Amino acid sequence: MKILLVEDDREAATYLIQALDEVGHVTHHATDGETGYAMASGMDYDVMIIDRMLPRRDGLSIIESLRAEGDATPVLILSALGEVDDRVTGLRAGGDDYLTKPYAFSELLARVEVLARRSSPTEAQTVYQVGELTLERLSRKVERGGETILLQPREFRLLEYLMKHAGQVVTRTMLLENVWDYHFDPQTNVIDVHMSRLRGKIDKGYATPLLHTIRGAGYMIRA
């Protein structure tokens, strides 16, 4: 998922961004309230994580403005203020959840995932299938012919995107924007490397290849 983190503590933000990346999420980071509000207003996010006390503009002010504009993106408030009145104030300002500092990453991740599920109740498809290959989004389980395939978080996101567009040509630009969240070409072979690893895991040892390179266009997964 795509997450906006508005946090002025750079060390804490760096740790959190790295941890979220390791489980396959893309995080955009703002270090002050004004920048955070501009990013929240200018892009779509699945979840926002907003610190309460920020330079230039406080977190509750950001949330109140977004709600007034009709933005319903789920917001997890982070704060060192943990009294009952503090939490109530944060929730009444428009926050969907409130987590006090210091926190455990596992708890933050669980809360973020719950907020994301609540915000997309109409997204019914949780299982994708191409031939004998199946991917379960919620359990993050991948199987081919009844055999479990272990994927790294980025490989899982790559395969999920390909299977979501099964039978269609997926370009490098589409992959960079939707799997890596790059809106520019980094001029590296990152896609080729991951595609090679993915092909080795889902096609090696099977008679029928599923992942195809479409010369001059991109990639396609099809039975």
Structure report:
It is a single chain. With 223 residues, the protein is of the alpha/beta class. The chain folds into two domains: 118 residues, 3-Layer(aba) Sandwich (Rossmann fold), CATH 3.40.50; 95 residues, Orthogonal Bundle (Arc Repressor Mutant, subunit A), CATH 1.10.10.10. The strands form three sheets. The protein has a five-stranded parallel beta sheet, with helices on both faces. It is elongated and about 60 Å long. The chain starts with a strand and ends with a strand.
How would you summarize this macromolecular structure in one to three sentences?
The chain has helices at 10-22, 33-42, 59-68, 84-92, 105-119, 153-164, 172-178, 190-202, and strands at residues 2-6, 26-30, 47-51, 75-79, 97-100, 127-130, 133-136, 141-144, 147-148, 211-214, 218-221.
Characteristic terms for this protein:
223 residues; Rossmann fold; Arc Repressor Mutant, subunit A; 21% strand
Largest sheet features: 5 strands, parallel
Q: What's the architecture of the largest domain, going by CATH?
A: 3-Layer(aba) Sandwich
The general outline is elongated
Number of strands: 11
CATH topology of the largest domain: Rossmann fold
Top CATH class of the largest domain: Alpha Beta
Map the helices and strands.
Blueprint: E1 2-6, H1 10-22, E2 26-30, H2 33-42, E3 47-51, H3 59-68, E4 75-79, H4 84-92, E5 97-100, H5 105-119, E6 127-130, E7 133-136, E8 141-144, E9 147-148, H6 153-164, H7 172-178, H8 190-202, E10 211-214, E11 218-221
Parallel strand pairs: 1-2, 1-3, 3-4, 4-5
Antiparallel strand pairs: 6-7, 7-8, 8-9, 10-11
Helix pairs in contact: 2-3, 6-8
